[in-house]
Amino acid sequence: MATQRPSFPVRLTPTAAAATRGRLPAAPSRPTVPTITATPSMASDAIRARMVQRLAAQGIADTRVLRAMGTVERHRFVDSALVNQAYEDTSLPIGLGQTISKPNVVARMIELLLGAPALVGKPNDKLGRVLEIGTGCGYQATVLSHVATEVYSIERLRGLHEKARTNLRHFRLATVHLLFGDGMVGYARGAPYAGIIAAAGGEAVPEAWIAQLAVGGRIVAPTQSAGGGQALVVIDKTARGIERRVLEAVNFVPLKSGIA
Predict the structure, then answer these.
(1) What pLDDT shows up at residue 43?
(2) pLDDT of 250 strictly over 80
(3) In this structure, are residues 233 and 244 in contact, taking their beta carbons and an 8 Å threshold?
């Protein structure tokens, strides 16, 4: 509460006058200037630029992806104890047995998504509406918002759904919709989707996802491979039907049904 200042002129009492006679007023104290220590968070622009250079050297060529990866602040999506590792090419724990995928995997999968039949010959266009299965901490959904016109992201674990909502509040992304629900069944109310991307792998891509994919759209998802591991699968829906390709080996958390 501010102290009420007296009206002027002010008449000092004898005691106060005597106390001030012959004494200069004390100089106002200077505010303490806090010592600022440089942190990875403060230097994130330069660190992200180096991350983008590394991604390009690893083969990521789509300028839309590189620009998005260089824009989104990954350190905002990891625990404070892991900030120093935020821009390293490694996955990091985000709680509840889940992880944030390493930057190279995020960039690779989004680049594949942008290769959808509907975008062939349109290297500067955005993808349309995208469905993300497995919001996690919200990092990939935020990156997707820079390359797609609208993003629906569904998470089955309430704790992570709430964490993602908190993380995304800073960015104020009107085109990203976070949903709590069973990703196995997709989200029919938002269909059809120009792209569907999954952050968890099951035995096969659910038929619900294929049904919710638009003609000209693409699914990028990990699935179980013949050897018991996982591999990236790309599914295109064209006027001629469904086309599937199996790509490189990956390692994602298992795809589960239900909510928790």
Answers:
(1) 65
(2) yes
(3) yes
- Assess whether 153 carries a catalytic annotation: no
- DSSP reduced 3-state for 214: strand
User: How far is residue 226's CA from residue 236's CA, in Å, rounded to a whole number?
Assistant: 21
The residue from 7, 41, 91, 101 that is catalytic is 101
Averaged pLDDT score across all residues of the chain: 88
82-111: buried (b, 16+ CB within 10 Å) or exposed (e) per residue? bbeebbeeebbebeeebbbbebbbbbbbbb
Question: Any residues with CB less than 8 A from the CB of 34 and at least 6 apart, and which?
Answer: none
Containing 197, the helix (H) or strand (E) segment is: strand 193-198
Cβ atoms within 10 Å, residue 75: 20
Token pair of 232 as six digits = 């990236």
Q: Say what the pTM is.
A: 0.83
DSSP H helices in 31-85: 44-57, 63-71
pLDDT, tens digit, 9 for 90 and up, residues 16-71? 444 444 444 444 444 443 333 444 444 679 999 999 999 999 999 999 999 999 99
Collapse the DSSP code of 153 into the 3-class scheme (helix H, G, I; strand E, B; otherwise coil) and give the result: strand
